[in-house]
Amino acid sequence: QNGGYRTLSLSGHVGFGSLPDQLVKKSIKQGFCFNILCIGETGSGKSALINSLFNTNFDDHESTHFLPSVQLRAQTYQLQESNVLLKLTVVNTVGFGDQINREDSYQPIVDYIDAQFEAYLQEELKIKRSLCSYHDTRIDVCLYFVLPTGHSLKTLDLLTMKCLDSKVNIIPIIGKADGISKSELHNFKNKIMSELVGNGVHIYQFPTDDETVSEVNTLMNRHLPFAVVGSTKEVKIGNKTVRARQYPWGIVQVENENHCDFIKLRNMLICTNMEDLREQTHVRHYELYRRRKLEEMGFRDTGPQNKPVSLQEAYEAKRHEMYLQLQGEEEEMRQQFVQRVKEKEAILKEAEQQVQTDFEHHMLMHQEMKTKLDRKKKVLEDEIAVFIEKKANAELLKSKLFASTPVVSLKREEDRK
Amino acid sequence: AGPAESKNEGAMSEMVPEPRQKPVVPMKPTGINANLLGYIGIDTIIEQMRKKTMKTGFDFNIMVVGQSGLGKSTLVNTLFKSQVSRKTSGWNREEKIPKTVEIKAIGHVIEEGGVKMKLTVIDTPGFGDQINNENCWEPIEKYINEQYEKFLKEEVNIARKKRIPDTRVHCCLYFISPTGHSLRPLDLEFMKHLSKVVNIIPVIAKADTMTLEEKTEFKQRVRKELEVNGIEFYPQKEFDEDLEDKTENDKIRQESMPFAVVGSDKEYQVNGKRVLGRKTPWGIIEVENLSHCEFALLRDFVIRTHLQDLKEVTHNIHYETYRAKRLNDNGGLPPMTVETEENHESNL
After folding, report:
1. What's the CATH code of the domain at A216?
2. Domain assignment of residue A402, yes or no
3. Strand ranges (DSSP E) for chain B?
4. Which residues pair with A90 in a beta bridge?
């Protein structure tokens, strides 16, 4: 029972009974994280319930019905009670169930939950990691709000819960339970539970292994799903001010156990089982995600001859594989590069040759033209020479004619006389 | 409370249930962007956590290192008020000093105040006893790293155990011989090497051979030597988390440590009370008397205040350092796992 270790009795007071206190002291210093996911159609009472649960008015505005797809809105708050610091993150599904085609309604939710697991896994796999200061955003509990129709669960609800039951602790809630009578409520609850069981949906069961809480937990398990009313308004009744909703026919008090299961929910969620919810998330849901993810990536705990292989070895083998692959790709790229360079060089060479040819061609042309022009020039020069000769001859002729025509000169002489 | 249901609109006759029992410590409605308007019960998580840890129990592994004859086994037995060490009571002359350093781990389960502790005492017979003690810390360093390796292998499995068995050494008590002069080269070498992989708490053994003045002087000298040699013993300065820690630990580091202790498992009658002590011709040395020796300080330090912290520093710092180095070592698969040679005597 003690793993083969013998039990010894102490002969005096040693003092390690303070160990839980030492542990608690350290935990208080670090603070606690708690993450709640609220799924439910717009107007099913999610925000009102969260406000009532934590007795505060978290700033949140009403959502519209006309969002094109489901969005997840997360907000983190720091709460303190005595010396306990709680980092509370509330994730709301906005627009859930509003679309006409709701086939993809649950996918963003699944993706969100997986993303938180993935972030934690990444941190855990890092070489230099800081898990003790890591802000844990993994969802610890999912409050699934069902509208108090009085009939059966909607298909969307069943489908969504079935998708999520292996990823998160689900607590089904009947929201806005002030619109349903006690007997209707009783039937409705039974109907819901039998449908969940019939469809194989595993909702969170409050743990019954610890004697101090098993009794109350077993009782509470039978009250599921909790029918709640939330309110951020306070109403004065007698000399007390309580959270309530005021109707013409009466006042529905949130914290009155006869009116709704709010107190039960708060006790179960916070005062009794908060630590168990966190533990289940870490030890069960996260481990399942991790195992699936690693197996997906090809890691196994046993090697090809069914000999146990450590993840470490597999990881390093895979890394070696990737390294070789990377080298191969690098080599390929290098060869491609060399090839391209060669091609480019060839193109350039061709172009160079082309230019050379053109140049020679032009030179030739130029030479031809020059020769042609020289010839023309010669021709013209010859013509000029001929013309000059002709001109000289003409002038000679003219002077000769001048000498043999005295009439013209006598006239001149007469004039002179 | 069962309220009588009234059909009146004002519901004045209806009993409004009493609000939740307020805690003894008044709640401060502080918060960064949320104001709490009434008691919720967040602080009950402390109780939930305490219950959970008591159910799972604790592991604690303590190693004792020092030359033979310094009273290691007796001290550990005195610390845990039971025969947790491998040596039975009494001075065993027939015990052979081994030719090399051996690592012997013995585990027991002890319970106190509803808290179950699986305590493993790791003895290192042969340390410092040879003629040539070169590298005699190596088997010890190897053992410590093997425990880190074991934990890492488990942690890295795909299908992991819910609770990985923790065999890592949380605390190493190093026994300094009460020469009154200074630390020996072997002491310095051991602590230099091992203070980087495990929490070392130096302890001056058999302190009943020193007077008060000699004790104070010796302690001062030892502290100085450790500082000069850059040896960071537990609690290490760099791991003080906040001012509160620092103030508390500074006092311990600069005044109390190393603890000068005397161990005994025999009881004597002193002033009408039965106390653990050593009987000498000149008087009875009371182990748990603070004016006689600092055993009570050591016990309170290791067990009553810093036990959890010893484990956390081992897990968050020493183990992480080992893991990071291990994962960083490039190329090749890890060496084939050879079954560790330590002898597990479980007193079955």
Report:
1. 3.40.50.300
2. no
3. 58-65, 104-112, 115-123, 171-176, 200-204, 259-260, 267-270, 273-280, 283-286, 343-345
4. A36, A75
Q: Where are the beta strands (DSSP E) in A309-372?
A: none
pLDDT at B331: 34
Instruction: Provide φ and ψ at B21, rounded to 5°.
Output: -60, 120
Give residue-wise pLDDT tens across range A181-218: 888 888 889 899 999 999 999 999 888 887 888 888 88
Q: A290 to chain B: which residues are within 8 Å by CB?
A: 158
Interface residue of B333, B336, B346, B348 to substitute, partner A, most A CBs within 10 Å = B333
Q: Best of B20, B45, B310 to disrupt the A interface by mutation (most A CBs within 10 Å)?
A: B45
Per the structure, the complete domain to which residue A267 belongs is given by 24-297
pLDDT of residue B218: 92
Q: How many CB atoms lie within 10 A of CB B165?
A: 12
- Is a pLDDT exceeding 70 seen at residue A309? no
Domain count along chain A: 1
Interface A-B, measured as beta-carbon pairs within 8 A, has a size of 246
Residue A148 domain-assigned?
yes
CA distance B81 to B111: 11
Contact A81 B27 (CB under 8 A): yes
Q: Which two tokens stand for residue B235?
A: 């609690």
**Max Cα–Cα distance, chain A, nearest Å:** 181
Position A316 scores a pLDDT of 67
Does B5 score more than 60 pLDDT? no
φ and ψ at B131, to 5 degrees?
-75, -45
* Dist CA B32 CA A399 (whole Å): 130
Q: What is the ipTM of this complex?
A: 0.76
- Interatomic CA distance for residues A97 and A101, integer angstroms: 9
Distance CA A265, CA A270 (A): 8
DSSP string, A241-299: EEEEEEETTEEEETT-TTT-SHHHHHIIIIIITHHHHHHHIIIIIIHHHHHHHHHHTT-
Segment A277-299 shows an average pLDDT of 89
Residue of B nearest to A317 (CA): B333
Reduced to 3 DSSP states, what percent helix, strand and coil does chain A have, rounded to the nearest 5? 55, 15, 30
Torsion of CA A213, A216, A220, A222, to 10 degrees: 110
B320 contacts in A (CB within 8 Å)? 128-129
Residue of A nearest to B150 (CA): A310
> May I ask the CATH class of domain B56-86+98-263+293-330?
alpha beta
Structure tokens of A383? 């013509």
- Write the CA distances from B250 to B204, B219, B238, B299, B305, integer angstroms: 19, 15, 11, 18, 15
Q: Is the Cβ pair B40, A313 closer than 8 Å?
A: no
Which one-letter amino acid corresponds to residue A248? P
In chain B, where are the structural domains located? 56-86+98-263+293-330
Interface touch B117/A19, C-beta < 8 Å: yes
pLDDT in tens, A30-74: 888 999 999 988 888 888 888 888 877 766 666 666 677 788 888
Q: Do B43 and A315 touch (CB under 8 A)?
A: no
State pTM to two decimals: 0.74
What own/partner pairs with CB < 8 Å and gap ≥ 24 does B21-28 have? B23/A82, B25/A82, B25/A83, B27/A81, B27/A82, B28/A80, B28/A82
DSSP H/E element including A215: helix A211-223
Asked if the structure places residue A66 within a domain, the reply is yes
**Type of residue found at B305:** T
Q: Which of B60, B82, B159 sits opposite A10 (nearest CB)?
A: B82
What is the distance in angstroms between the Cα of A29 and the nearest Cα belonging to chain B? 10
Token pair for A316: 């390093």
> Residue B194 in contact with residue B318, Cβ under 8 Å?
no
Single-letter amino acid, residue B59: D
| CB within 8 Å: B52 and A279 | yes
Within-domain flag for A355: no
